[in-house]
Amino acid sequence: MPIHIIDRRLNPGGKSLENRQRFLRRAKSLVQGAVKKTSQERDIKDVLEGGEVTIPLDGMHEPRFRREGGTRDMVLPGNKKFIEGDYLQRSGQGSAKDSGPGEGDSEDAFRFVLSRDEFVDLFLDDLELPDLAKRKIAQTESEGIQRAGYTMTGSPANISVSRTVKLALARRIALKRPRKDEIEELEAAIEACTDEDDRAALVARLETLKAKSKRIPFIDPLDIRYRRFETVPKPVAQAVMFCLMDVSGSMSEHMKDLAKRFYMLLYVFLKRRYKHVEIVFIRHTDRAEEVDEQTFFYGPASGGTLVSSALQAMHEIVRERFNPSDWNIYAAQASDGDNSYSDGELTGLLLTEKILPVCQFFAYLEVGEAGGSAFDLSDSSLWSLYERLRNSGAPLSMRKVSERSEIFPVFHDLFQRRDTAQEKAAP
Amino acid sequence: MKERLFEGADWDFHTLQRITDACEEVALKDLGLDVYPNQIEVITAEQMLDAYSSVGMPLFYKHWSFGKHFAFHEASYRKGLMGLAYEIVINSSPCISYLMEENTATMQTLVIAHAAFGHNHFFKNNYLFKQWTDADGILDYLDFAKNYVMQCEDRYGRIEVERTLDAAHALMSHGIDRYPGKKKLDLRAEEKRAGRRRQHEEEVFNDLWRTVPKGAAKSRSTLSIERRRKLLGLPQENLLYFLEKSAPRLAPWQRELLRIVRHIAQYFYPQSQTKVMNEGTATYVHYRIMTKLHEQGRISDGNFLEFLGSHTNVVFQPEFDDPRFSGFNPYALGFAVMQDIERIVSNPEDEDREWFPDIAGKGDVMGVLRDVWANYRDESFIGQFLSPKLMRHFRMFHLHDDPEERAGIRVDAIHDERGFRRVRRELARQHDVGFIDANIEVVDVDLSGDRRLILHHHVIKGSQLNETDAKRVLQHLADLWTYDVALIEVDANDKVLREYVVSPRPIAAAVA
Predict the structure, then answer these.
(1) Distances in Å between the alpha carbon of A311 and those of A242, A315, A347, A352, A380?
(2) Cα–Cα distances in angstroms (integers) from residue B355 to residues B332, B348, B358, B359, in the given order
(3) Where do the SpoVR-like C-terminal domain residues begin and end (chain B) (predicted)?
(4) What's the DSSP call for residue B236?
(5) Between chains, do A71 and B38 touch, taking CB under 8 Å as contact?
(6) Which of A276, B346, B360, B452 could form a disulfide with B484 if both were Cys (CB 3.0 to 4.6 A apart)?
(7) Does A19 lie at the interface with B, CB-CB under 8 angstroms?
(8) Which residues of A touch B11 (CB under 8 A)?
């Protein structure tokens, strides 16, 4: 009987991918909720990691007719001391154990692992990015080309002569195409030959050789190889991202969450573009300090509001640690718009003189309470200041945001300005 | 002494070939097995997870629930909560066995003996599999099903198809013919039939029919109940079959989807009835083959010890008060009974002669076993062949748990002379699908009235349906039936215990 033994290990994987995507699509709102929750708990830098999420199984349930209760009979192994007619005490809920281990757990919550891409996708989806922008962020930009082997087709400019000749040579040897000196040798022999019969044999042989060398071309189209090129992502060295935030008492949790999301998005964006991204957190009240992420978002602070202090701190850090010729500098400032009146002058000066010239991008995000409609009525002091600067030509992106979905438009500017930013970034 | 098949743990494809040849020699010559041609495939852990999520089949139609299972298995596998099976074997011709690449050479030998010969023989010879499954056609049929579902998605939209499949899956356990009499499924013909049906529809399509004015509806109230039930083939316990044939407003493709799900459920039906026997057979066969190979010197002592380690793990039966206990281990029980039959046939005691006059001391072990493998299912197998000696060995006892009984759970019988028969009968009953699955059947349709579909659940021993799940399943059923569905739970005296009525959901998307 013939037995077939087959190695399936090399078959393309991901057979379940389609089913998995269907499942994710179906569970989208649930998974998205889980992703939102997870990303709130995470540090900015971890947003790009995939990870385990837990969703309630409701709606993902596959119902069956199941019976329960009633009188039950069972046969068990391992009797030690029972005899017929004994009664065993029911322990509390005697039947609870029989629901099967693990099953009860999976009934209400379902836990599984999202890959990095799935996670980022859902995260971006949550921010309601338009598809085009999503693609730009989520996919690695292909910016350079590099050699990648040879190909059978291509443009004539890309012909690889050495490879082509090498192949032609191999083919000629394999097919026994007569070499040039072989023919010359034979011709010389014919010259020198005196015997008529021998001569005729030599001439016949010469003819065969010549015919053969005609039939087997020196270079066949089959031999031709072209150099192949591949586009590869070329991240531009390194970038630093400054997160500036007002942490005075007037900033609510909701505002901070908006800011955090904005920072996350900016981080995702930068991470795709640069090999190495540093993040600097600067929080300020009436004085500024560099802090770690936990303190930045959750540390308590109180005091007045002096925006210039943060800009001053940033300026000093740039001077000490991030030379603008080595680093791409991005800055994002989040605030509720309060600033003490006397500080306006200094802020404007610092921004135009010191900060903006070294930055690729400076975004100002004015965050408001959820559904804040009164928010649009009057401009805050900081907003009017920045607007004045922008009108006089300073490269500033600024937005007011009170809902998560409004965060994206700030990036719109970023994408539009990308070409010029790129030029600047080039060394 | 013959040449060693392998040394150490490493193997390559030549080793596999040698192993398979050696196993085949023992299986066919010494054990007299009769198997489908074998196809052995080596797969990775990821592919094994793939197979897990599509009920072990190599190809299957796409559905979100398989993705869910995949995500679940993957998560628990990654966390180390779950190990993967060493193999998966498919009841098809050729019989396909998947082996994990991580297995050592000994494990591969064990697995080949177990799956490619043990299970394979059982699939080919057991009467239930012969009756209900078509090993030659299954792979082609799955391929057809996959393509058909895909075509339906293209034509009618993914959501519509998904809705139908969700409903069909919910009713899958009640989409089975339990009694023979129908002709065996020929899955290849099924595929052709579906194609012909569609072709016929396309050929006879005439748009004019749409414009013909409809006459006054004919009253059918004159039909007697008996006649009506007969016309609809009632009572009917195969709910999917009934819907496929009689649901008033399903599109042809939806009926075909129900049919596909029904056929697949039917294909797996014998497996659920023969877990103990199937695993017992395979375990017994691998044990015999491995022992023989070791006797012949083709497996070294060290490798044989490795095998014995795995084998002992497989047939381990924790006792009821052990935290690891989760019911009878089908491998342990099946293997023990098979070995016991071997003992009874070749070396019986007086007790065995009294209990098993037909086989005791008959001498031809393999002949008896092959007959057992061919003609029994778990319930009848245990009911017939569980010997007193084995009941004593497992120290079995029977508990009767009546919620009405205040004193607690009664020990009804133990492994003694008075209890043997009762213990055996109860254990056999535990393996009878007739007692495990809820007994639900369509009993009537009110055709003259509101077309309500009426089902009965015949409650056994007071065990009713889980309410949440029952409502959900009925919702699916009502969606397919498109009119109200009533499920009445009645006990043995026709007393109504509970009644569910569910109305179909309006379909959000416009019905074309």
Answers:
(1) 10, 6, 7, 11, 18
(2) 22, 10, 9, 10
(3) 439-492
(4) B
(5) no
(6) B452
(7) yes
(8) none
Q: Which residues of B341-352 are buried (b: 16+ CB within 10 A; e: fewer)?
A: bbbbbeebeeeb
| 3-class DSSP string for B278-297 | HHHHHHHHHHHHHHHHHHCC
A73 found inside a domain: no
Helices (H), A177-335: 180-192, 196-215, 253-273, 293-298, 307-321
- Whether residue A51 is found in the same domain as residue A163: no
Range of the domain at A164: 156-228
Give A297 or B306, the one with higher predicted confidence: B306
Domain boundary among A182, A200, A228: A228
CA torsion B357-B358-B361-B367 (nearest 10°) is -160
pTM: 0.70
Token output for A83: 């005899």
Q: Please check whether residue A70 lies inside any domain of the structure.
A: no
Write the pLDDT tens digit of every residue in A277-323: 788 888 888 788 888 887 887 777 777 778 888 888 888 888 888 87
- Do B459 and B491 form a contact (C-beta atoms < 8 A)? yes
| CA–CA distances in Å: residue B466 to residues A67, A69, B463 | 6, 9, 9
Nearest-angstrom CA–CA distance, A265 and A47? 9
DSSP A159: B
B401 and A72 within 8 Å at the Cβ level: the answer is: yes
Assess contact for A261 and A401: CB atoms under 8 A.
Answer: no
Q: Is B470 touching A (CB cutoff 8 A)? A: yes
Q: Give which of A339, A363, A354 is closest to A414, Cα–Cα.
A: A363
Residue B206: which pLDDT band, with cuts at 50, 70 and 90? confident
Same domain, A206 and A270: no
Residues A333 and A406 grouped into a single domain: yes
B102 CB within 8 Å of a chain A CB: no
Omega prior to B94 cis, within 30 of 0: yes
Contacts of B328 in chain A (CB under 8 A): 75, 77
Positions of E strands within B367-406: 397-401
Residues A223 and A244 in one domain: no
Indicate whether A289 and A392 sit together in one domain: yes
- Is the torsion defined by CA of B320, B325, B326, B331 positive or negative? negative
B30 at interface of A, judged by CB pairs closer than 8 A = no
Measured CA to CA, the distance from residue A134 to residue B332 in angstroms comes to 56
Split into its structural domains, chain A has a count of 3
- Beta-bridged to residue B87, according to DSSP, are B99
Q: Do B20 and A3 touch (CB under 8 A)?
A: yes
Q: Which residue of B has its CA nearest to A1?
A: B37
Classify residue A342 by burial, with Cβ atoms within 10 Å: 0-12, 13-18, 19+.
exposed
pLDDT (tens digit per residue) in A369-421 = 766 554 555 677 788 888 888 887 777 777 777 777 677 666 665 555 444 44
Q: Does A91 touch chain B (CB under 8 A)?
A: no
The residues that bridge with B487 in the sheet, in sequence order, are B455, B500
Contact B174, B240 (CB under 8 A): yes
Q: What is the dihedral of CA B232, B236, B240, B243, to 10 degrees?
A: 20
Distances in Å between the alpha carbon of B472 and those of B65, B84, B167, B171? 16, 32, 10, 11
- Pick A29 or B335 by higher pLDDT: B335
Q: Is the predicted pLDDT of residue B179 greater than 70, yes or no?
A: yes
Residue A147 lies in a domain: no
CB B133 within 8 A of CB B268: no
Q: Which residues pair with B485 in a beta bridge?
A: B453, B502
Helix (H) or strand (E) holding B442: strand B440-445
CA pair distance B40, B20, nearest whole angstrom: 9
Write out pLDDT tens, residues B334-386.
999 999 999 999 999 999 999 999 888 888 899 999 999 999 999 999 999 99
How many DSSP H helices and E strands does chain A contain? 15, 14
